[in-house]
Automatic annotation (TrEMBL):
It comes from the Eukaryota. InterPro entries: Galactose-bd-like_sf, GH, Glyco_hydro_29, Glyco_hydro_29_N. Pfam families: Alpha_L_fucos (PF01120). The lineage of its organism: Eukaryota, Viridiplantae, Streptophyta, Embryophyta, Tracheophyta. One of its GO terms (cellular component) is lysosome. Residues 100-363 form the Glycoside hydrolase family 29 N-terminal domain. This is alpha-L-fucosidase. Belongs to the glycosyl hydrolase 29 family. GO terms for biological process: fucose metabolic process; glycoside catabolic process. It is an enzyme of class 3 (hydrolase). It comes from Protea cynaroides.
Length: 578
């Protein structure tokens, strides 16, 4: 290996602007070993040299705005579809439902927000008005709202309750205001309806504190009155009233629809996009899913999907399993997108117990997988380092610091770009996480992961296209002491802000192609994880196989109708029903 070891003492010859715990640890360690070997005879002059730091590399356009960055760092948002449909067992209300039926007697927006927050969602987005036109706030421009509801004798305001709860909990608030309105009489008269719509939008954006996201669709039913939506005027109004908000639509301007309602992004997914190439209500799903490597606008994608078959709550429907949500997480957050999961409150005005249970399991599963980054204890080396060996600002060690704002950068004008890891011992893993510092643009086009085999060869385990904010790749479990991440193609010098290597014991099969659907679980299955010792209690169906291997927690189980179970661990309890 030609790479220099990052623990080489020469790397101390620089100014770490933000010392991190690992770095301090190494410094202490190196000091003690220097003192031991030199018998503390003299100070070590190179430790205190003071050359100027190398500036950061130029960004590559387009770049995210501050609102887009904050949106992306949030990773997951909870969508709340709620309204008269919740009481009429429908998905698309006609606009003629009697508003008095809206009576969520136990409504508690704090419960919604707590469910979102404890499961790791950074914002909540409410359908303040769906296609049926019923408003969850007392709009001055229509009576078809909570003012005409039985709930609180017309004195309730769902949006106000949610805004208060979100502010208290410190999570973001977003609103959906349906352009299509099946109740409003002026719908169909272009100027009049656009004025009405913008008046309602102004109520939402001026009466409830900070709004982080405005979610729009171009929906208009078949055979509906022909009229034009003045999107450009709406967008300008939204940005004027809420400069920190991102606007979602099929075509941006700030975040784009991924092109399906399954929550799944393309396995190549650029935040780059041409807004002018997309039309709201009439997009090319392929273009939406993949973005555009030549796009001149920054418009990252949002993956919306419902936890249940429908968007509104129906007594007959059940939520997806936690493992299905995990699969969608890999295919949304793990493909440079935001995961927008709809969890509809029920007709009591609360999120149902079965949905809460699934969300808790989903959070525990993510915690189990992603809280053990095997790379944390690895020795890292890079093919080169920006600014040369004296510069610590771009050291490969930064890829183990959480977040995107510190990063490894290679020396300029190189053609080989790689980071090597030495675990010290052979470890098993099946997930790679890579993050780019996207505030400096999205760069990486192609990359791959190699392991060092016992016969001394490098062998490719998985390759990928595009990284962006975050890339998660799953593959068949491999075991190795040495591995390397190689960047094969990049729009500019590749920068890496985070690397994770994990063992995911839950995902079955692999997702190497990016098209397979590995987790085919049915709704009867429940996985419960308890406590930090990762005991697993699961009901599996007969074809399911779980393999879990790691150096200090080794468990291997095959479940099928013949109940073959092998357990090789004293610190994992496992109970299974078949
Ligand atoms: C997007 O715009 C760039 C020029 O800025 C162009 O090269 C590229 O072909 C466009 N993409 C599409 C799909 O039109
Ligand atoms: C709504 O969910 C709550 C649990 O949060 C539950 O107690 C209540 O019975 C549910 N209401 C309906 C109508 O299912
Ligand atoms: C692991 O967790 C299970 C379930 O919580 C518990 O019964 C068991 O005693 C724990 N084992 C250890 C070693 O902590």
């Amino acid at each position: 290996m030609k790479e220099r070891n990052a623990r080489d003492p020469t790397f101390l010859n620089s100014k770490a602007r933000e010392p991190i715990p690992q770095l301090i640890g190494f410094v202490v360690l190196l000091f003690s070993s220097l003192i031991a070997t030199t018998k503390a005879t003299a100070p070590v002059p190179f430790l205190f040299s003071s050359s100027s730091p190398k500036p950061a590399p130029l960004p590559i356009l387009p770049l995210p705005s501050a609102a887009q960055l904050s949106w992306q760092l949030g990773e997951m948002a909870l969508f709340l579809h709620f309204g008269t449909n919740t009481f009429t067992d429908s998905e698309w209300g006609t606009g003629h439902a009697d508003p008095s039926i809206f009576n969520p007697t136990k409504l508690d927006a704090r419960q919604w927000v707590q469910v979102a927050k404890s499961a790791g969602f950074s914002r909540v987005i409410l359908t303040t008005k769906h296609h049926d036109g019923f408003c969850l706030w007392p709009s001055a421009y229509t009576d078809y709202s909570v003012r005409s509801a039985s709930w609180k004798n017309g004195a309730g305001n769902v949006l106000a309750d949610l805004a208060d709860a979100a502010r208290e909990a410190g999570i973001g608030l977003g609103v959906y205001l349906s352009p299509w309105d099946r109740h409003e009489a002026c719908y169909g008269r272009t100027n009049e309806y656009n004025e009405f719509y913008m008046a309602q939008m102004s109520e939402l954006l001026t009466g409830y504190g900070e709004i982080k996201e405005v979610w729009l669709d171009g929906a208009k039913g078949e055979g509906e009155k022909d009229m034009e939506y003045f999107f450009d005027s709406w967008f300008a109004l939204i940005h004027q009233l809420q400069p920190g908000a991102v606007i979602f639509s099929d075509a941006g301007p700030d975040t784009r629809w991924i092109g399906d309602e399954a929550g799944v992004a393309g396995s190549t997914c650029w935040s780059l996009f041409n807004r002018s190439s997309a039309k709201i209500g009439d997009t090319d799903p392929q273009y939406s899913r993949g973005g555009d490597p030549y796009g001149h606008d920054w418009v990252p994608a949002e993956c919306d999907v419902s936890i249940r078959p429908g968007w509104f709550w129906h007594t007959s429907e059940r939520p997806k399993s936690a493992l299905t949500l995990l699969d969608i997480y890999y295919k949304s957050v793990g493909r440079n997108c935001l995961f927008l999961l709809n969890v509809p409150p029920n007709s009591s005005g609360l999120i149902s117990d079965e949905d809460i249970q699934v969300l808790e399991e989903f959070a525990k599963i993510r915690q189990t997988i992603f809280s053990h980054n095997l790379a944390k204890n690895a020795v890292l080396t890079a093919s080169s380092k920006r600014g040369g060996i004296d510069e610590s600002q771009f050291d490969p060690l930064h890829v183990l610091e959480e977040g995107i704002f510190t990063y490894w950068a290679p020396e300029e004008y190189q053609s080989d770009w790689s980071i090597n890891l030495d675990f010290g011992v052979s470890l098993s893993f099946n997930v790679l996480q890579v993050q780019e510092p996207i505030h400096k643009g999205q760069r990486i086009i192609e990359f791959h992961l190699d392991i060092h085999t016992e016969d001394g060869e490098w062998k490719t385990v998985i390759s990928g296209t595009t990284v962006g904010y975050q890339r998660l790749l799953r593959f068949v479990t491999v075991k190795s002491q040495y591995l390397r991440i190689v960047i094969d193609k990049s729009r500019a010098d590749p920068l890496i802000s985070y690397l994770g290597i994990y063992l995911d014991p839950f995902s079955i099969g692999n997702d190497a192609s990016g098209t397979s659907s590995p987790s085919n679980f049915n709704s009867t299955e429940v996985i419960r994880l308890t406590s930090s010792n990762h005991s697993l209690n699961a009901n599996f169906n007969s074809t399911e196989v779980i393999r879990l291997t790691s150096s200090n927690h080794s468990l291997s189980a095959n479940f099928n109708s013949t109940e073959v179970i092998r357990l090789t661990s004293s610190n994992h309890s496992l109970s299974a029903k078949m």
